[in-house]
Amino acid sequence: MSIPALLLHPYQWLLNSLRVPSRRLHSILHSGRHPAPRAPRAALWKPSGHHCTKWMLLSGGRRNALCIQATLRDHTEGLSDKEQRFVDKLYTGLVSGQRACLAEAITLVESTHSRKKELAQVLLQRVLVHRREQERLNQGKPLTFRVGLSGPPGAGKSTFIEYFGKMLTDRGHRLSVLAVDPSSCTSGGSLLGDKTRMIELSRDMNAYIRPSPTSGTLGGVTRTTNEAILLCEGGGYDVILIETVGVGQSEFAVADMVDMFVLLLPPAGGDELQGIKRGIIEMADLVAITKSDGDLVVPARRIQAEYVSALKLLRRRSGVWRPKVIRISARSGEGVSEMWDTMREFQRVMLASGELSTKRQQQQKVWMWNLIQENILQHFKTHPSIQEQIPLMERKVLSGALSPGLAADLLLKAFRSKH
Ligand SMILES: Nc1nc2c(ncn2[C@@H]2O[C@H](COP(=O)(O)OP(=O)(O)OP(=O)(O)O)[C@@H](O)[C@H]2O)c(=O)[nH]1
């Protein structure tokens, strides 16, 4: 089975790399029951990465843990002394709350250098183990609250985050703000991460603001932001705010990596809100109409009523939570404390029902498959046998000379023949 088949059926590729009969893999993946492993005994004690993956999928909890440890050990043993010291230093600094180490760790996960990417994975795995241990001590409950915050340009996001962030740190929370701005790679700088937007908060020792630059792709948003979230949590930040401009695709990716998704909307008419995609309103667990002060209170009330009616018509995404529409003002502070109460209420209800853990688990799976898809597509597009044919095929499809299906078949065939 070659890579193209994978594009058609991802499990098939996994199956091939593991050399597990198709029916068996299918039953493993869908039943959740793992049959007894048949790998040679030696693989348990000194697994190669390949065997180890097999054991991770096929064996039960204890062997699974053993296998993960072995993979980590394999990775760790592959590090030079210098690399080992570097990862140790970052890890120790990070978990003891040193901001400089957190910043360096995020830079490491953002690196596109292949060796640095490997080091980043070693570090992330250690942070993950640390976090799991902390969660275990907390009766298995998450210690952090991940909130996605989106809104059109000028909605009042930075003014809100500044006020909200100060309120949280005054109450003893540690807040990190990751600003996802997919335009940063084209504009040459991150608009959202610009610290001048949140001057006071960026000086607060209990707040950490960081742009989350991306490779411009949704996969880029997924990877770097997800990994930055893990690192911030490892660094002891208990509220993670992921900010994104609500006019593109990135907010959908962000909605898939947070516990709660909050939409900020200005008290403006339809024209100003045109950039906001209907789909994003469906993702919102909470809609906050901003700038509800002075002359803007009346339009804010009207917009609130409109969104209350609109949300009633939308399909509910949770069995226990009905999205709410509130009004806030970051200028007067009105409604912001109540907003935090509503957010905590959401967290409490979702935790108690088990929906929060299920959501986080599902997000991990989606994340893994997004990365696989992104990687494989990249591999396909940059493969020497394909790269030069793609523009030609695209032209033929555009002119109507070839059907999209046939063009795809031809490209896949060319790709397959070179593997
Ligand atoms: N009256 C009033 N104005 C506000 C409030 N919050 C923000 N503004 C004003 O709205 C404008 C935009 O606010 P920002 O916080 O920069 O909005 P933003 O969503 O971060 O904008 P971008 O950086 O373009 O994405 C500024 O002129 C703020 O002064 C508020 O609560 N009340």
Automatic annotation (TrEMBL):
One of its GO terms (molecular function) is GTP binding. Pfam families: MeaB (PF03308). One of its GO terms (biological process) is cobalamin metabolic process. The keyword Thylakoid does not apply. GO terms for cellular component: cytosol; mitochondrion. Gene3D superfamilies: 1.10.287.130, 1.20.5.170, P-loop containing nucleotide triphosphate hydrolases. Keywords: GTP-binding, Hydrolase, Nucleotide-binding. InterPro entries: GTPase_ArgK (IPR005129), P-loop_NTPase (IPR027417). The keyword GTP-binding applies. It catalyses: GTP + H2O = GDP + phosphate + H(+). PANTHER family: METHYLMALONIC ACIDURIA TYPE A PROTEIN, MITOCHONDRIAL, METHYLMALONYL-COA MUTASE. Homodimer. Interacts with MMUT (the apoenzyme form); the interaction is GTP dependent. GTPase, binds and hydrolyzes GTP. Involved in intracellular vitamin B12 metabolism, mediates the transport of cobalamin (Cbl) into mitochondria for the final steps of adenosylcobalamin (AdoCbl) synthesis. Functions as a G-protein chaperone that assists AdoCbl cofactor delivery from MMAB to the methylmalonyl-CoA mutase (MMUT). Plays a dual role as both a protectase and a reactivase for MMUT. Protects MMUT from progressive inactivation by oxidation by decreasing the rate of the formation of the oxidized inactive cofactor hydroxocobalamin (OH2Cbl). Belongs to the SIMIBI class G3E GTPase family. ArgK/MeaB subfamily. This is Methylmalonic aciduria type A protein, mitochondrial. It comes from Mesocricetus auratus. The lineage of its organism: Eukaryota, Metazoa, Chordata, Craniata, Vertebrata.
